[in-house]
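Incident log, structure service

09:12 report received: a user says their structure output differs between two submissions of the same chain.
09:20 pulled the input from the user's history:
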Amino acid sequence: MDNICNTTGFMGGLQPSATLAITSKAKAMKAQGIDICSMSAGEPDFDTPQMIKDAAIEALQAGKTGYTPAAGIPELRQAIAEKFGRENGIETTAAQVIVAPGAKFSVFSAIAALCGPGDEVIIPAPYWVSYPEMVNAAGAKVVVVQTTAENNFEMAPADLEAAVTD
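09:34 re-ran on a clean worker, output below:
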């Protein structure tokens, strides 16, 4: 039978996750007894607080086991909007809030929705290791602009302008 998988597409050429490689290395070192503070996958080094575990168990026992709306549970979106207003001075509504499973997923979704072959994505360096692969997955080209500590790692307008092409 012919191989029906296309490994030449954008996703077929991606590199393995550097984040997961670093995480795996840190876990192996920790297993060897080395004191490690891994800052790779964003996993805390402490157990989930009991009140969160209890709330999860309560939700499961209440039958809350189905899919949620794509933008998030309405009550959560409302609570986030209220928090932004109360604690951050950002007035927003629940309709303007989207809940996602993480920042990397959100960034990837935006890149996948907005970018494709022939596009160029400017990424200021330093950057998170996953960003170039996200751009590659969309079939777009990565354009890295170096930043400096002297400039607070912010892109200078002239550097940005120099990176923009037709």
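09:41 both user submissions now match this output. Likely a transient worker issue. Closing.
09:42 reviewer note: Strands lie at 120-125, 141-146. The first strand starts at residue 120 and ends at 125.
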